[in-house]
Amino acid sequence: MLVHQFAEYAVKEQTSKLPVDVIHHAKRAVIDWYAAFLPGSIVAPAILLEQALAEDLDHGNARLASGRRATLRAAALINGAASHSVEFDDIYRDAGFHPGSPVISAALAAAQARGASGEQFLRGVIVGYEISTRIGEAVMPSHYKYWHTTGTVGSFGAAAAVAAILGCNREQFAHALATVGTFASGLQQAFRSQAMTKPLHSGHAADVGAMSAMAAAKGVTGAPDILEGEVGFGAAMSVNPDWKKAVKGLGVDYNITRMTFKNHGCCGHTFAPIDGVLHLQKTHGFTWRDVKRVRIATYKAGTDIVDNPAPEGAYQAKFSLQYVTAHALVHGSVRLIAFSPERLIDPNVRALLAKIEVVADPGLSKGYPNQRAAHVEVELDDGRKFAHFQPTRKGDPDMPLTDAELNDKFLELAMPVIGDASSRRLLDTLWSLETSKGVEFDFTSRERARAAG
């Protein structure tokens, strides 16, 4: 059964000689997670969850971004939600999945709670990524019709990471996965409103993953055929899952080396069009004032989620292809400031937004999820027309962010929260994680820095 194959891999991975590039990419994933986590930790829903889960705070050995103590599960939940809140977390393209939020949130909480070393933490992260990304590939693309992969598949990744860090044996590890499968959830309807539920999917995945691993370590058992069983995860949540993908290359070919790190602070389905219009603007030198019409053709799985010509509020704007494209043309980028109250009512952005047409392209739709491309056409008021095919997204494995660009992203997002010196010190620490004796990092929160004057 699949959970036993995963368990066999995971136990071996705890003492294997990991390739240098795998360790490097795991550190990249953790750095990118912190880049999304820190700004997400000072906004809703994370700040509200701290209030809601007050009884689970100020004791335990795991930590929130503020340094506040928490139980393992509370930290996994709150940090999991925080790291998915500002839409800057990583993507495994071939599964339409954000593994970092559930996997690293749960792994970090477990490592802190158990006093694990940096290397043990990284090994847990790697195991969580490798198992969950493969489960995601096996059930895609049909799974994505109704389900949020980060909430569903992310549960398995979180359970795997925590089970590895807890030192579960083969049987315990298998039961951690077998148990968490029944808790996997997250409906896409949550995407289509101003609700805070979407980041809670990631927090829930981290929480139930941690709980299932902790329980399995004490002897709690689960259904071993939860993935491929007649009424199991695959049958219930996808159409004809390809379980061969779930174990292909496991332990040899590492998916963590092929992550997408976001270059824009919004839904990943919007990235190829954003990159495309910015390419045309840079190439031909026009401004947003010159634009008469923009036509974007991209894949249907994306347009189903991001075709929103009248977004209300910051959350919907992050999932409005029209809004983020207009913002990119007016302001040159789509970073966190794009969703500030002032930008959301920017009359220039709103005027341009009305000139943008979004359609689903049948050819590009067939390439999903392995390719995320867009055809972009811009017509100017003077009659000139420009077209561009954007075959991938900046940040994807075939057009990756360099280490230097990842550092810049981290500092841009971390410094407003924890300050310049703390951000640079944390970044240096994360680049040497494999040699660290622990993962309770010393950095000062913005609130404490303010209190200290």
What does this structure look like?
- By secondary structure, the protein is α+β, with helices and mostly antiparallel strands.
- It folds into 2 domains: 2-258, 2-methylcitrate dehydratase PrpD (Orthogonal Bundle), CATH 1.10.4100.10; 268-390, 2-Layer Sandwich (60s Ribosomal Protein L30, Chain: A), CATH 3.30.1330.120.
- The chain has helices spanning 2-13, 20-40, 46-52, 72-82, 100-114, 118-139, 149-165, 170-180, 197-217, 233-237, 244-247, 271-284, 300-306, 313-318, 321-331, 341-344, 347-353, 362-367, 403-418, 420-430, 446-451, and strands spanning 57-63, 69-70, 291-298, 356-360, 374-380, 385-390.
- The strands form 2 sheets. It has a 4-stranded mixed sheet.
- A hairpin with a 5-residue loop joins strand 1 (57-63) and strand 2.
Secondary structure topology:
Blueprint: H1 2-13, H2 20-40, H3 46-52, E1 57-63, E2 69-70, H4 72-82, H5 100-114, H6 118-139, H7 149-165, H8 170-180, H9 197-217, H10 233-237, H11 244-247, H12 271-284, E3 291-298, H13 300-306, H14 313-318, H15 321-331, H16 341-344, H17 347-353, E4 356-360, H18 362-367, E5 374-380, E6 385-390, H19 403-418, H20 420-430, H21 446-451
Parallel strand pairs: 3-4
Antiparallel strand pairs: 1-2, 3-5, 5-6
Helix pairs in contact: 1-8, 2-4, 2-5, 2-6, 2-19, 3-4, 4-5, 4-9, 5-6, 5-7, 5-9, 6-7, 7-8, 7-9, 8-9, 12-15, 15-17, 19-20
